[in-house]
Amino acid sequence: MTYILRIQAPDEKALIYKITSLLQNFNITKNNEFVDFEQGLFFFRAQFTGENSIDGLREQLLEVLPPNSEVSIEPKHSPKLILLCTKENHCLGDILLRRESNELDVQILAVIGNHDTLRPLVERFGIPFFTITHEGCTREEHEQKLLDCIAHIGQTELLVLAKYMRILSPDFVAHFRHRILNIHHSLLPAFVGANPYKQAYNRGAKIIGATAHFVTDVLDDGPIIAQDIIKIDHNYTIKDMQQAGHDIEKIVLARALKLVCEQRVFVYQNKTIIF
Amino acid sequence: MTYILRIQAPDEKALIYKITSLLQNFNITKNNEFVDFEQGLFFFRAQFTGENSIDGLREQLLEVLPPNSEVSIEPKHSPKLILLCTKENHCLGDILLRRESNELDVQILAVIGNHDTLRPLVERFGIPFFTITHEGCTREEHEQKLLDCIAHIGQTELLVLAKYMRILSPDFVAHFRHRILNIHHSLLPAFVGANPYKQAYNRGAKIIGATAHFVTDVLDDGPIIAQDIIKIDHNYTIKDMQQAGHDIEKIVLARALKLVCEQRVFVYQNKTIIF
Amino acid sequence: MTYILRIQAPDEKALIYKITSLLQNFNITKNNEFVDFEQGLFFFRAQFTGENSIDGLREQLLEVLPPNSEVSIEPKHSPKLILLCTKENHCLGDILLRRESNELDVQILAVIGNHDTLRPLVERFGIPFFTITHEGCTREEHEQKLLDCIAHIGQTELLVLAKYMRILSPDFVAHFRHRILNIHHSLLPAFVGANPYKQAYNRGAKIIGATAHFVTDVLDDGPIIAQDIIKIDHNYTIKDMQQAGHDIEKIVLARALKLVCEQRVFVYQNKTIIF
Amino acid sequence: MTYILRIQAPDEKALIYKITSLLQNFNITKNNEFVDFEQGLFFFRAQFTGENSIDGLREQLLEVLPPNSEVSIEPKHSPKLILLCTKENHCLGDILLRRESNELDVQILAVIGNHDTLRPLVERFGIPFFTITHEGCTREEHEQKLLDCIAHIGQTELLVLAKYMRILSPDFVAHFRHRILNIHHSLLPAFVGANPYKQAYNRGAKIIGATAHFVTDVLDDGPIIAQDIIKIDHNYTIKDMQQAGHDIEKIVLARALKLVCEQRVFVYQNKTIIF
């Protein structure tokens, strides 16, 4: 059995000693720690294996750790997720292919689109597709339908916005705190909002980027998980940028998704620590 | 003799034919063109050699080109420039070294600092250093002293801000339209203004960058010439970012300076075309 | 109607003038040239539109160009291709998705696998899949079966080896000179041959790469079309490298394929010029 | 006082617990570990501060660690080094500038050149320069003169070949095992030996690189510390590659030097682990 232990604690001396003293009966195969000295915060992640029971381990850890520490221990598993999409196939298709080849160890429960465009692609991979159009209803109504659909699909750990071109309200986001992943087609915080490639074109940027982040209340402002760029020049039209950008969008989203699924991402102060 | 021909013209059919028909007696060793179809603008740069006189060539070109075309023909030469600096040596020192090894074919007339810190470095390279402190005087007074000093030094083609940590007023900039080069330590338009690394740290950026641009009236808003990035992670303190950033700052500034000196950069609509 | 003109010629003065003089009745929307001064060779590609007939244009061009020039003029079109694969889905799937979204303007006639593994994926996209196993036959016999299958499928312009894990003999390659595209999972010429990631692991490389190239008689030695890299560190196992490498393999292959399909690639002296 | 603890040990359970149990009286500000499961090797580096004495700590650690463990504890300090150069100023000058701005915390004892070219540059920075020409003497004689000069300069921890264009014999290298740093202007193992840019040009590479590595008996085969690349295209002549390459050569060498000086680099099996 493989477990993942995650700790966030106020920093103090000898934390690693105290933690590892309680893990002596297990085999730690990977561990990472980070201290933010400015904030006095300690972060720790360990992957460990062993036949012994982990019953009581969390409580033992909380006992030796400073007050206000957070500890989680979970068996390594394949997370359940729901993908949201609109019309573009590159991010969605890429995740479907990675799932199929086991490169990405996740369970895709369903895909929800606000258009029907990608239904054939998704159904070909044997995954249920739900169309929830935003037409003819208010944002509140649309988001309620989304929530109903998600509830109907069943317990999900993550929502992945695979080029879902709608802005989600704070009310909706509140249901899935740090559990909605988005890909934005710029190197945030540059070019927030609509049409980032057009913005980059107008600004004469020589580099364009993509950013995978958790969704928060503020548009394109959530904790950044992964970013990448490509170099461009004056020959690129907005359409060229879009096409070239697809390549980093899908790679960056997949990279971030993998990190989140492997429980490597800690969020604090609107930033991420990635082990 | 090597000449550089630069043309900006309203686009129309057969421009290249018309231009090259007038260059038949020369040997074109390199030529580049670009059409911005949206704006209907044609840009052309050719490097050519030959023993024939270029007398009248500019007029002949203007005759066959559409109205409102701009044409310049100059012998290839080593441009004269003045560097401005504050306290950090990495961009300035890098340019001095490139000058010394002939990697950068320029004449450095002088260096002006608002602090005296880098005087020893500069004088070691046999280049005059002028200290023009901003202390005890208004911005206007300080900039007037700068202008006087520049006039005293003599005819310069370019001002290069090699980590010059003062903002120049529109009045000052107006004296050197598209002739002041700056390096900003972020991937513009992200993190405009003061302390971009601190801004990047606070935003939890996974990539930081540097941007070389022409200085205009609006802070950090001028036409971008060159950009580059480095990837960072949560382990980077602001100080680590600064140190790592130095490496791209100096490379990007030097790259942009070389492009400008070789007359490869066209500016239009607050953007650059680089041949 | 859009045409693509490609010229390779011994270099001499005024070639562009001569070429563009014959294109005055067309609208050149893009043109590129390159001179290899060492070899005295001139390369030219233009994309032009127009209602006039191109009858005789090639002959006219050959008349004004130096002896031994090569000229081709073709209407822009969507090339026909056959993909070859083995078991890995990332390159193949990526091309299928790009085809489906029209990002890649090609006609995929069929996919041939030496294993049956990827048949379901391919057939889901409505594309014929042929399994031609290499088991129980000599290399010659296997390649003859491949040739028969390709002939049966019909006229193809390109073969794309999308992680096809068999080495093709010079005899086979001779049928498709500069028409077989391969992706090799290293930054050639580093790590030629089998198991490049294992080689990179053993050598302690800090960067791994992928190379798309035309296949020639010599293994992994053909003209390079596109390359890209990712940075790694000591934490990467060979398996980690393989997974991370997939991302650049598929991007680099797709990029090269697009360039070839748009007729932007010239081959000479085992190198490429890319316009 | 800040100390750096480095451990290489056969892997077994609970090593971190055992190590940190002995460090409870110190404040660990940074620690890293890595296990090579294939080889069964454990690597550990910690930076710690404290007022307590470290007397006996090494012995205590060796007692709890498995047999054949290697432990070193050293106060953090500014290492002494000698630079070797030939005629190119970019790597050497870059290190001199970084030293001057305290970006690189080292003591440069002297620079030795096999040509006199860079003497003025070095002496301007107040650093002794020794010319040891290789002309008129055998390799053995030349290397003996080098060794004599190095002995004369005094105790050095590192030799840094800052574009020193001579190959050092195994006999010479044996005096400085894993203490000679070299920068090679290719992405090793591609383009070993002389003229890597010419090799890259002839091969039609689309990417060129630089590699900083420890020097061993076999040419360009030592453990790689850092690598970086730049993208090129058919427009690059060999001279263009050389110039562009300078930018990554100096950055990569400086990065590797900093890592080594901060004792972050472990060498084993001709590879490096970098913490």
Protein model, in words:
The structure is a homotetramer of 275-residue chains. Chain A has 275 residues and is of the alpha/beta class. Chain A has helices at residues 15-21, 57-64, 90-100, 119-124, 139-153, 170-174, 196-203, 238-261; strands at 2-10, 27-36, 41-49, 70-75, 80-85, 107-113, 129-131, 158-161, 180-184, 207-214, 224-231, 265-268, 271-274. The first copy, chain A, has a seven-stranded mixed sheet with strand order 7-6-5-8-9-10-11, sandwiched between helices. Chain A is globular. The model of chain A has no long low-confidence stretch (mean pLDDT 96). At the A-C interface, α3 and α8 of A face α3 and α8 of C.
Structure described in brief:
4 copies of one chain form a homotetramer. Chain A is α/β, with parallel strands linked by helices.
Number of strands of chain A: 13
Task: Give the class of chain A from helix and strand content and strand pairing.
Answer: alpha/beta
Biggest interchain interface, per-side counts: A-B, 29 and 29 residues
Distance between the termini of chain A: 21 Å
- SSE order of chain A, one letter for each helix or strand: EHEEHEEHEHEHEHEHEEHEE
